[in-house]
Amino acid sequence: MDNWSANQTTCDLDNIELKFLPPNTTARLQPLDRSTKSFKLGYRRRLLDSLLMNLRVGTELKVDQLGAIHMMRGAWNSVKQSVANCFRKAGFVTAEFSEACEDGDDDEEGMDDTFRELSSLFPAAVPAGVSAGNFVNADSNV
């Protein structure tokens, strides 16, 4: 557990021993944060890919609920390997198993390429100074 005040407990737990992470290590050691980022990246990349496809053929992008669910399903299916990578990068997988996990940084590079292509095809869609990373992490403080 992290040291967030809501996680502190005064309960007497006879059969459970709670261990807290050292201060300021939550972001580095918490694989859930990394896999959440991977899911957002996958979803937003699919959203941009749809936008680019529609720009190329000259149609308006309309994402309905079913379309969003399909994009989320695709993003979630690509997260599975990412979760393993996150555990490996956080140090929870021994060296002998780390070779079985791919790096997974291709998603971020692909997002950068997609974002650059969108900027070149439709410059008004991307405000000055906004990067692919800004787009992916737009709601990280919400």
Automatic annotation (TrEMBL):
Domain (DDE-1): residue spans on this chain: 8-82
Pfam families reported for this sequence: DDE_1
InterPro entries linked to this entry: DDE_SF_endonuclease_dom
Protein name: DDE-1 domain-containing protein
GO molecular function: nucleic acid binding
